[in-house]
Amino acid sequence: VKGLTGNIFSLVSGSRSSKTFKPKKNIPEGSHQYELLKHAEATLGSGNLRQAVMLPEGEDLNEWIAVNTVDFFNQINMLYGTITEFCTEASCPVMSAGPRYEYHWADGTNIKKPIKCSAPKYIDYLMTWVQDQLDDETLFPSKIGVPFPKNFMSVAKTILKRLFRVYAHIYHQHFDSVMRLQEEAHLNTSFKHFIFFVQEFNLIDRRELAPLQELIEKLGSKDR
């Protein structure tokens, strides 16, 4: 895993591919959150993902979750960006993760009643919605001393739950394209990091993870 975890960051930072679905969300250099991100990258490089996701000693849980949520958004943004040409209205008329799981979009504000839409449309809605949350300084404060809101944890859980659906769609509907692009190592490492993180802090309900349950068990069993 050691080589792969190093690569995911070079890939995310754009040295290998600058193709992202949405603009990358940057954490301001020189900020405490930037230092936390650098700490996360360094511990990931050690190859021990279980250890890498743990809350660093003396750090604020909300801030750690915020930094990692931004990072996962950037990773998924990049991974989906590599396969957008294969995820079309024609190839993916519904947003699904295999035959048993279909997702309908609602954000509670602009679209209150869930609507059935194609996967590219759904993912566009989803990533735009996540971007708006990450850009909201009242939800994701980037300045030192600005407190996180009381509802931060529930917002972060919703973001991560929805980002999981993009992984699930890629694995179920586009894994052959991922293999052809030789991106499977990056996808697997990114997803494993994501799963270990949400498991560490109990951020996604087990029922939501059902579409990739077998894969999750397989990834986890290698680390026991």
From TrEMBL:
Record InterPro entries: MOB_kinase_act_fam, MOB_kinase_act_sf
GO molecular function: kinase activity
Domain of life per record: Eukaryota
Binding site for Zn(2+): C87, C92, H169, H174
Alphabetical keyword list: Kinase, Metal-binding, Transferase, Zinc
Protein's recorded name: MOB1A kinase
Source species of the chain: Chunga burmeisteri
